[in-house]
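B., you asked whether I could sanity-check this one before it goes into the benchmark set. Here's the sequence:
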Amino acid sequence: MKKLSLLFLGFLLCACGGYATKPVTLPDGFTVQARIADTPEKIEKGLMFVTKLPEGDGMLFLMDKEEEQAFWMKNTLIDLDIIFIGADQTVNQAHEYVPHSYTYTPDAEVAVVYGFGKYVLELPAGSISRHGIKEGSKITFTAGGQ
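And here's what the prediction gave me:
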């Protein structure tokens, strides 16, 4: 069984560009397979250079502390919804349709969003409305690392 689990983990890492995934359940019961960003390098890279994020996919950032977080959209080539989540898995802030940038966008023109949280979830643009996400909503997942 352990060998099968390791093979499955290996498949997940390959399928997601080196990121493990975990299921994240949204307020309406819809489950997203979120890539996990749990190291400084993965957090910094995020979804940079990704050209497509299908419905049902996302990225969950596991931050060291519950505090004010800033997300800069440099080299993020797709519009995203960005959700800041507290340690209790309650939505603190939800930013819909955060605009993408291009590789040539001047730094001063790249969107930045701020929010307070221990976790940050990035989803395809429009997900907040589609899934009824708002401040105070619960988003559930297993909080541990991979």
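One thing to flag: The radius of gyration is 15 Å. Otherwise nothing jumped out at me.
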